[in-house]
Amino acid sequence: MSDGGVFVDYYAVLRVDPKCSARKLETAYHLLAKLYHPDHGEHSDVAKLTEVIDAYKALRNPDDRQEYDARYASETGFDFAEDDDQTTDDGAPLSDAEAHARILQFLYKRRRENALEPGVGRYYIQEILNCPDDLFDFHLWYLKEKGLIGLTEEGTLAITIEGVDHVIATSRTAMKEKLMLSQAANEQDQRHG
């Protein structure tokens, strides 16, 4: 983080709203790091990749981000206290995606550990997510319509074959992203070290 030196707008570097959630910040970082990584011929840009990594390092820790936000507000005049309904809804798709992933991961684990009785009661899963009935109903509707979960003969929820395939594919993609980001960070450290 800049320590009284030249002010850098890290939110602009990451192309996010200053009030964005930590999850959205992380998602923006992953997308931009992947875009500017040297392995991506036409968009590779080591200088921009370095900026993106520096910005994320400065904002990923909540305490550091709070300190940066104070400086950001004084430099730009941005009002973090102002209530903005658009910002509140901005993270809804990401938080929904996280809830869907948590449900699928839980049901995947349950099916692996108890293949003959993979079902789980809806209220148990809702308690884990800690979300209201109408939002939980939305999550169940979506996952059922996508064919990722279904009902057992006992009326409990269980992951489907499509759901298992989805969890495996998502896990593979996440592992590739982590490897790519680790390589980018190592390359940056070697250049600066």
TrEMBL record:
<protein>
    <submittedName>
        <fullName>J domain-containing protein</fullName>
    </submittedName>
</protein>
<dbReference type="Pfam" id="PF00226">
    <property type="entry name" value="DnaJ"/>
</dbReference>
<dbReference type="InterPro" id="IPR001623">
    <property type="entry name" value="DnaJ_domain"/>
</dbReference>
<dbReference type="InterPro" id="IPR036869">
    <property type="entry name" value="J_dom_sf"/>
</dbReference>
<feature type="domain" description="J">
    <location>
        <begin position="9"/>
        <end position="72"/>
    </location>
</feature>
